[in-house]
């Protein structure tokens, strides 16, 4: 198990991440979401010691990665902004990664390059943004590290390649030997992939969602009332994620039979349950308030 404990990183006297703690096991696909600039990439860089943490630890099976750096080999991350790959050809990259990742699968690396029509003689820097992202994923999968961090892996890829990558990630965790921590702006992509989702807000870990549990407890409901007055029940127990005229779409984080009965008692003109998505949770939890202030 990989454990992040009370991790903090300050840059220019500002906390970028603060008091971040979570566990991550092989066999899990964990999504990481948050607004731009909230610290997702900083978290990854601090976990892999590209940045020195101001506080906290990262440990694998109780081995502190800073004190025992050999365990860092079990964690894979390519920084998409700062890396050494630009001047090298694709067929040269395994030479570097085999030095760190002893189980690097060079035969599978070549096979995946061919599968996605990538030419081994091409320089990394000559590739499009999407193709560089694809090469990063291929290196991650063939490293055979048990913990793999992917930072915006679907950015710039066409839908067919995205689907292929998603399938490969799911296949990789099937034997419970690998786990993935994935950040993405595409919440729909994470919704279909992730077992859990970590939500960063204001430099801290605001929520650690088990998506199956959330869908058992939460409900997204479309409502229309006879007048424009918003019932106190909604203000107290739900968050408004969308409004169109008199149509309200709200999320109840903890929906109970008692709440359902109270809603029915308000005699709404329309009351319809809608599918709950990760984007709905993102909207509900990253707004500055419950959303009802916009109705004033």
TrEMBL record:
Pfam family membership, one: ABC_tran
An example molecular function term from Gene Ontology annotations: ATP hydrolysis activity
Keywords attached to this entry: ATP-binding, Nucleotide-binding
Residue intervals of the ABC transporter domain: 2-227
Superkingdom to which the source organism belongs: Bacteria
Listed Gene3D superfamilies: P-loop containing nucleotide triphosphate hydrolases
Protein name in the entry: Acetoin ABC transporter ATP-binding protein
UniProt source species: Levilactobacillus spicheri
């Amino acid at each position: 198990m990989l454990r992040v404990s009370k991790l903090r990183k300050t840059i220019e006297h500002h906390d970028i991440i603060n008091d971040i703690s979570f566990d991550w096991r092989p066999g899990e696909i964990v999504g990481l979401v948050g607004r731009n600039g909230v610290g997702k990439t900083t978290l990854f860089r601090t976990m892999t010691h590209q940045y020195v943490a101001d506080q906290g630890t990262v440990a694998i099976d109780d081995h502190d990665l800073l004190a025992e750096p050999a365990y860092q080999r079990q964690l894979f991350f390519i920084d998409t902004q700062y890396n050494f790959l630009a001047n090298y050809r694709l067929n040269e990259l395994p030479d570097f990664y085999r030095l760190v990742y002893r189980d690097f699968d060079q035969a599978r690396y070549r096979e995946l390059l061919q599968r996605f029509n990538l030419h081994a003689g091409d320089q990394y820097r000559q590739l499009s943004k999407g193709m560089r992202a694809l090469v990063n994923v291929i290196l991650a999968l063939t490293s055979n590290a048990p913990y793999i961090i992917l930072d915006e892996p679907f950015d710039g890829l066409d839908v067919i390649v995205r689907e292929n990558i998603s399938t490969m990630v799911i296949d990789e965790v099937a034997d419970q030997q690998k786990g993935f921590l994935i950040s993405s702006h595409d919440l729909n992509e994470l919704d279909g992939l992730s077992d859990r989702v970590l939500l960063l807000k204001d430099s801290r870990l605001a929520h650690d969602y088990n998506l199956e549990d959330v869908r058992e407890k939460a409900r997204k409901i479309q409502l229309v009332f006879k007048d424009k007055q918003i019932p106190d029940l909604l203000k107290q127990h739900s968050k408004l994620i969308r409004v169109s005229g008199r149509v309200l779409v709200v999320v109840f984080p903890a929906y109970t039979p008692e709440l359902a009965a109270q809603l029915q008692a308000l005699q709404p003109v329309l009351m319809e349950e809608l599918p709950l998505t990760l984007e709905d949770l993102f909207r509900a939890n990253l707004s500055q308030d419950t959303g009802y202030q916009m109705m004033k």
